[in-house]
Amino acid sequence: MNETFWPYFYRKAVKAAIVLQPLLGITNSLQMVATPNNSNVIYFALWSFITTFLVSFQGFFAALFYCFLNADVSTEKGKLWD
């Protein structure tokens, strides 16, 4: 690889880390917040549903934002279909 490729490579790697960190960390931060065990039953049910939904679909959201909606992937798909 040539010398001009490395800054581009590092920029893409940092961008990937910046995108994935909040995406994968949302569920962990929700679970770190005090679990509403002693509060209203409806609030606890809502919190449980949201947390379970985010944990279950975490891989789907990562694939959606990082792969399917990525400009580079869209460009390559366009080349494939043409």
Number of domains: 1
Helix-strand pattern, N to C?
HHHH
Q: How is the main sheet built?
A: none
Given as residue ranges, the uncertain stretches (5+ residues, pLDDT < 50) are none
Question: How does the overall form come out from the CA principal axes?
Answer: elongated
Distance between the termini: 29 Å
Q: Estimate the strand proportion.
A: under 5%
Beta strands, count: 0
Q: Radius of gyration over alpha carbons?
A: 19 Å
Secondary-structure content class = mainly alpha
Overall mean pLDDT score? Answer: 79
Structure annotation, total helices = 4
Helix proportion: over 70%
Which features characterize this protein?
single chain, 82 residues, 4 helices, 80% helix
Briefly say what this structure is.
With 82 residues, the protein is mainly alpha-helical. Helices cover 80% and strands 0% of the residues.
Ordered list of secondary-structure elements with their pairings:
Layout (H helix, E strand, L loop, with lengths): L4 H28 L8 H16 L1 H11 L2 H11 L1
Helix pairs in contact: 1-3
Describe the structure.
With 82 residues, the chain is an all-alpha fold. It has one domain. The protein contains four helices and no strands. Helix 1 runs antiparallel to helix 3 (58-68). The longest helix is centred in the N-terminal third of the chain and has 28 residues, at 5-32. The model has no long low-confidence stretch (mean pLDDT 79).
